[in-house]
Amino acid sequence: QVQLVESGGGLVQAGGSLRLSCAASGGSFRRYTMGWFRQAPGKEREFVAAIRWSGVTLYYVDSVKGRFTISRDNAANAVFLQMNSLKPEDTAVYYCAADSGQKPTIAKNAHEYDYWGQGTQVTVSS
Q1: Could you give the CA distance from residue 32 to residue 125 in angstroms, rounded to a whole number?
Q2: pLDDT digits over 56-103, tens only?
Q3: Is residue 54 over pLDDT 90?
Q4: Other beta carbons less than 10 A from residue 109's beta carbon
Q5: Could you write out the DSSP letters of every residue in 93-114?
């Protein structure tokens, strides 16, 4: 059973930065596509970014391009989300997720991910 634990969330002013971490245990982490999603109050869960097992293929939702960077350390079973130039609309609970399937394209929908963390709150004040 794969377990994912996020950390690094918090309260930050607009324009600030945060670095989220997701520690994985169990399963075959280095073979999984890893993704970050977020969910704001009253809204559906939204895809943010994903990274293939090799770290080569990356994908970002348009609203975070140029501000967020996803990376992974397979030796440490960890994935990261560096968030810069944060905006109030980035406020949400951020979730780490793992896709254990071997798909030809990177997964961008929540239902394609098999394992989820408990989430970490990010609040950006204006």
Answers
A1: 34
A2: 878 899 999 999 999 999 999 999 999 999 999 999 999 999 999 888
A3: no
A4: 11
A5: EEEEEEE-S--SS---SGGG--
Which residues share a beta bridge with 92? 122
- Per-residue tokens: 118: 């408990």
pLDDT in tens, 108-119: 999 999 999 999
> What's the average model confidence in pLDDT over 45-52?
95
The secondary structure of 34-67, three-state, reads EEEEEECCCCCCEEEEEECCCCCCEEECHHHCCC
CA gap 65, 124 in Å, rounded: 18
Residue 58 CB coordination number (10 Å): 14
